[in-house]
Queue: 2 jobs
Job 1
Amino acid sequence: MKAIKYFVLVVPAFTIIILFLNFLSTGFGFSIIPGRSTIIGHSIIERFNVVEERRNPPQEPVKLSNDRVFFPIFDSARKSVFYYEPGTGFIKSVALSNINGDFVAPVMVAEIKPRLEEIRWLSSGKSLIAMAGDVSYYYDLSGNYVRRLNKPLFDSTLSVRDYRVAFLDYDEMVGKGYISVYLPADDLVKKILPTRSQNWEVAWASQDSLSLINWPGSRPSENYLFILNVNDGSLRKLLEGRSGLEVVWSPLGTAFIFSETDRLGNVQLSFFDVNSATEKRIGDNLHASSCIWDNKSRGIFCFDEKFLVYINIGPDKQKTIIRQVDAALIDTGSLFLTGDEKYLIYKSRADSKLYGLWLDW
């Protein structure tokens, strides 16, 4: 009976000692228990550190490539960004996976005319229209096809959505023109709205409608906003008599944000619902052109002088500071939000390179 008690006490004590020694040893990459081994460099502590490192996204902006980029655009799957190199004429693609530190060099996907002055993308990077001097070109990158267009298209009125180009086709000799939609692939122009005014800013609001900003010839500070149905030509006025008007439409085209300047020079940011024709104030000292909608039209990300903020377009109009940034270095004309809304891709004004900014929200 005494021998049995002694064995019961000794075996657990011996097991505890072995397990304790093994715990210490695994941190050094080996095991003293027969038949069990731990690979050097993958200890429990090191594996824990790797997990922690992956769970903590970068606090500083991540550079996606070493190239200076021009006219960037997301691909249709939002997995890469296409851009143009004027010096070489190369169209390149850089993977968004570079944000995670798995750096992959940009890939050339096409070669077009170098030193183009302007590019507008069609069909998520599958085709484009471009300008060199007074000549406009249509490039089909997937079909390796280029065609010179009959007339220059580029001015402040041009706007692209999918495979269609909306623009003001105005003849100064006769003093009139049309708001038109052009299909470059078929070389077809559809005239939508006749006009005698040259003071139109044209932009796509949705799949079937255009956003039109106009002002009286003698009073450019008084802006009017209309929405034009491209199918039936119907025109609806949404705003009038607004100074310094900037408009950014939601992804679905059912609402927009706009900024205006009051008589004292203060900038006010507001939200407008198209269906109910109602507006509400959501912020001060924020320009609509410095904002981008989230992917589900729930709210907007905006840059002020020192911070990136998120404004929820709800009853509470809650404003959340995402992180501190130097907005002067960010080209707000080239903002892209990843599909999971974890990163904001932007072009830097300092070096013209692409960066990814982690959205800690």
Job 2
Amino acid sequence: MLFRPSELDRVAECPASINAIQELMDAGLVPAHEETIHTYTGTVAHKIVADCLFEDRFAREFLNTEHVSSIDPSIKVTVDKAMVDHCQQFVNYCLSYLSPDQFIEQTIKHSTLPYQGTPDFACVTGDRLIVRDFKYGKGHKVSVDTWQLLAYAELILDYLKRNTDFIISYVDVGIYQPRIGHFPTKVYSPSAVSALLRDVVSRIRNGIDNNVFGPSDIACNWCPVAKLGCEHRIKQLTSAVFTNYDELEVKPVNNIVSNIELGHVVKAVRSLTQYKKDLEDLCLNKLLAGEIVSNFVLGETDTHRQYKDSQKVLNLLAKTDLDIDEYAPRSLVGPGALIKILKANESELNINPYITKPPGNPKLTEK
């Protein structure tokens, strides 16, 4: 089984996700490749950079060109001036290293460790190996302390050791994220890079053998099937069900428990998710009928509406006759449900200024 450097941060956090994802792919429950407008925009930016470096071109030559995803043809990206400027900025940075020994979008396979990858840019200058990872996104600052960067460095160190007589004393890794002006770097010794990678690969192998899932939600942020289910997700949902609804005198149906015991990940998650939704509907119906359900607090739901400031809303509710802590479980009373509660109780409190809701997606339907 070969790992890609881009997977290492997730896999190191949650080794069992490797097999879970493969099982779901084999069952046709998730696609082998998935594309979004954000990921494809990054792909286009990387292609522009590679073409400029390989073919001695300028990023401005790609201005206003349209690119269509081969995975999902409905996803299209038109290159604007901002993308041209940011791509050219990285190209200029790479060209500033006047080294004949460069690695640009070159796929390399490690000779002993089970992974291969394609560094965006790397070069040897003197006794220093420079490795840079081009990140076009602007949602958050990418940390320089990632296994992905170290994996790229180790791939090139392994390649140089097998194919050249270079003596590398320093490994300089860094993130190049021009859209938000984020360019962190970090220097390691070659021996430190190799030791760290061998250690994490050993931990991943052990985690796969022992079916170890991530201890936190960190890994779930990167996992393509986290919403569909894994043992960690089952534990989260089980906890939510038994914590929030323990006093409703409605017990989990047998198939949920059996699916958990048998390790049927997808079935268990689907059952728990549906059961949780049914309980929320039951709670809301009781609430609107004037019945009190205990263990209720203000919280978020999976709806599109979100609280801008939930504490502000709680402070406003404290000034009314409503005791929301007696009304709905944490997983129930999101903004939409709270609006219904206020309306049912003929309250004049307006919480709309403290709620955000993205634009809708209206569709035509037959009468």
